[in-house]
Write a structure and sequence with these properties.
The chain is an alpha/beta fold. It contains 11 helices and 14 strands. Strands 5-2-1-6-12-8-13-11 form an 8-stranded mixed β-sheet, sandwiched between helices.
Length: 333
């Protein structure tokens, strides 16, 4: 198992991410810490973690003593090259049979790797396995934070069972869902390492948003995928999160349009594309264009983009209804 943590200026959270890997019940892993040009203390945190964890590491099917189980990697000249290039640097240096990714500000629950390895062992023809991510807000100890948590990977902002949970999904079924709703884009996946090389790794022109969606789309168009329903990844929401609406703002639509352009080009390189997939792509592009137009009209009117100001009693009632909904049981560290 090769775990790749990419980070840039994550001094506040990086040690917790590393600790969540060390706490895994699945013990046969190596950890690659990929520094994307950090300017704060996170580089030193990663170097110290690598220097202090020398022991045994798996090399193929053999265990090699005296090798660093935790390794520190950086781009030449300590450059900032973006998330895709950083993930690729980790993957090309990985030696594990499987590759799992964790961002430097996120956390795994202890059974995450063991559960996903078992799923791939049960389904040897599957290229990867993934489960929903919890958009984690209660780490702030804000009493209202739980009202705003939801799952990514199961559809638009809801708790509940993934419609494909417990199944091995053949292509292009997951690819179609990804085009219909970004909340179906897999995250926290465990991928067979040869599959990543087969699909050409991550596309380095996607430096931030949708960099993961690109490689997931390439896999979903070619290979069967196992979908599970247990939550093992806590996706920390904070103002600097790449998917935080307040920090990303209108750029989300710009990046989504670029991602859909890439999908169009990529489908053109395939020998055969189902007509339904082409229709899904056209709908996705129309909805993105319509959302960008709406955002422009709101900004032109001088109002805050994407924000609907509700009376306090209405907000309280909506929060009460949200709390009454069925929610999964998630054991947090």
């Amino acid at each position: 198992m090769s775990v790749v943590i990419i980070f840039k200026d994550e001094e506040r959270f990086l040690a917790e991410a590393i600790d969540s890997v060390r706490a895994q019940t699945f013990a046969d892993w190596e950890l690659l810490l990929v520094d994307d040009g950090s300017t704060d203390g996170s580089s030193e945190i990663a170097r110290m973690a690598a220097a202090g964890d020398q022991g045994c590491r798996s090399e193929g099917d053999a265990t090699v003593p005296g090798l660093h189980r935790v390794r520190y990697l950086e781009h030449p000249g300590h450059a900032n090259r973006g998330m895709s290039a950083s993930r690729n640097l980790g993957v090309v240096n990985a030696v594990g049979r499987y590759v799992a990714s964790l961002d430097g500000d996120d956390v795994w629950l202890p059974g995450k790797l063991a559960s996903q390895v078992a799923a791939l062992d049960r389904h040897p023809d599957a290229a990867m396995v993934y489960s929903p991510l919890l958009r984690w807000r209660t780490w702030t100890a804000d009493p209202d934070a739980a009202d705003h948590e939801d799952l990514m990977g199961v559809g638009r902002k809801k708790f509940g069972t993934h419609p494909l949970a417990g199944r091995v999904v053949d292509p292009p079924q997951l690819a179609r869902l990804m085009l219909k709703d970004d909340y179906f884009i897999p995250g926290g996946a465990l991928i067979r390492r040869p599959v990543l090389h087969e699909v050409g790794l991550y596309e380095e022109r996607f430096r931030t948003l949708y960099e993961d969606a690109v490689v997931m789309m390439k896999i979903a168009l070619r290979h069967p995928i196992v979908v599970c329903d247990d939550v093992g990844y806590l996706y920390r929401m904070h103002p600097a999160s790449s998917t935080n609406q307040q920090s990303a703002g209108a750029q989300i639509d710009v990046h989504r349009a670029a991602y859909l352009d890439w999908v169009d080009d990529h489908l053109g390189s395939l020998d055969e594309v189902p007509p339904a997939l082409r229709r899904d792509l056209r709908r996705a592009r129309r909805s993105t264009h319509a959302r960008r137009q709406l955002r422009h009209r709101v900004l032109t009117a001088g109002r805050t983009a994407g924000r609907l100001v509700l009376p306090l009693p209405v907000r309280d009632e909506l929060r009460r209804r949200w709390r009454d909904r069925t929610r999964p049981v998630v054991t947090r560290p």
